[in-house]
């Protein structure tokens, strides 16, 4: 099986590194400098540094609309997206509104297999059957022209809270709050949907406080900081860019989780995966909690996850966590089969030199809820934008796109739609991920258009991707202390990546562990130190001959086994450089 090997490139180290507090390793100072940190204040994640809600356009109007509904006890219906960002957004909105005295609250989340994405006309019709006074979208709505129009024609107010990029036409909502609305000047364009809802709820609380609502109704003013665990989870799970404002929100949420001050479902999911709360990092939200919560929307119904996030019962949380874990295992099995099918096809194309610049894959038996993950896995392997398709019905295909940093995938789809007005039934998304629908009969035409558009955007760029390293480490730097400092030195994620290092090692021993993982004992070529290493999903590459020299890109990670914490190298990628 062939594999495209990424280029390993060491990042340029700034001439002036940030002057940080005593006790921070010079390695971590170097890492921060590479990521554009120039002063300690940029690493201050106290809530005082949050960009004020007043700077996000229309939060004042949204607050007035919500306050009116709370005051007159109106019926508020939340329409959520069916992913982790949508689920946390919904749970946060309901918990916050309850805390501010709203009584008639309900939610609706589309079933991706029946209803499609967002506030469609079908969902709007279902919403009308509940006779709401106000419909609030969370993590969707900016492209819901027909659904919003129907609700407004029936006299229902609509508040859209979203973070996705707008199309050429905006829905005729009562109020739209979106950091990516045309002309919006909010400094952080990367808020997740849950971050947008959090901002709206802060503005609502401030307005009700100013009006004397809490005192006049003998209500305890809600501490919205108690909801930051939801903000952190939704932000990390949606893989939005962790600019400073998002890092602040995530860090505050992580601190609450580490202190055990989080909703019972998050606690149960982490505990069930053997992640001690006190050591939780952003990656645990992204790779443990997020996938399990997302599994509800991918395999079953995200209402399961939302109800779980709204529950304060530990027993209910444990039962829901077990169900979500079961759904996630089912999702993995489905994904593995789909991945094997796609890989066989694409490896054959690669051997023939016919691998396209933009990859489109489709099989009539593929699961709609898993095509996004499949696209992501293929993208990681072949280092180019990917769209995976599944059948939406007998005539339509639904596609999920994942991209690489150098290609803004929604812009690419927009260019294709502009040049071919009747090709795409609908599309939407952002730079790294998007969704689309098209007629099954048009797949071959679209596949060619996509390949040509991506080839144009990638002209002159290497097609095998690159790994950006923060440089080498000495023997004295490869320590548990530095690994622990890095773990707490984030939050790391999209746009603020966890540090990667690269060095040459000799492989003293190796064996396969688990399902396709490699365990190695390494000796540093430059320092002679011996290290334990794990290479996930790379067992097929393990060198057979002891003494083989490899060039490895790795993270310093903390391995906890039976209460004992040890440093290990987590190998992200390696190439064999010589054999003894």
Explain what this protein looks like in three dimensions:
With 580 residues, the protein is of the alpha/beta class. Helix content is 38%, strand content 20%. The protein has helices at 26-34, 59-71, 84-99, 121-128, 145-153, 193-210, 213-216, 228-237, 244-258, 264-272, 282-299, 303-310, 314-351, 371-382, 409-419, 443-457, 480-488, and strands at 7-10, 76-80, 105-108, 134-138, 157-161, 175-177, 359-362, 386-391, 396-402, 424-429, 433-439, 466-469, 501-513, 517-524, 530-535, 549-561, 564-578. It has a 5-stranded parallel β-sheet with strand order 3-2-4-5-6, sandwiched between helices. Strands 7-8-9-11-10 form a 5-stranded mixed β-sheet. Strands 13-14-15-17-16 form a 5-stranded mixed barrel. Strand 4, helix 5 (145-153) and strand 5 form a beta-alpha-beta unit. The longest helix has 38 residues, at 314-351. The chain is globular and about 75 Å long. The chain starts with 6 loop residues before the first strand and ends with a strand. The mean pLDDT is 93.
What's the short version?
Helix content is 38%, strand content 20%. With 580 residues, it is of the alpha/beta class.
Topology:
Blueprint: E1 7-10, H1 26-34, H2 59-71, E2 76-80, H3 84-99, E3 105-108, H4 121-128, E4 134-138, H5 145-153, E5 157-161, E6 175-177, H6 193-210, H7 213-216, H8 228-237, H9 244-258, H10 264-272, H11 282-299, H12 303-310, H13 314-351, E7 359-362, H14 371-382, E8 386-391, E9 396-402, H15 409-419, E10 424-429, E11 433-439, H16 443-457, E12 466-469, H17 480-488, E13 501-513, E14 517-524, E15 530-535, E16 549-561, E17 564-578
Parallel strand pairs: 1-12, 2-3, 2-4, 4-5, 5-6, 7-8, 15-17
Antiparallel strand pairs: 8-9, 9-11, 10-11, 13-14, 13-16, 14-15, 16-17
Helix pairs in contact: 2-6, 3-6, 3-8, 3-12, 4-5, 6-8, 8-9, 8-11, 10-13, 11-13, 12-13, 13-14, 15-16
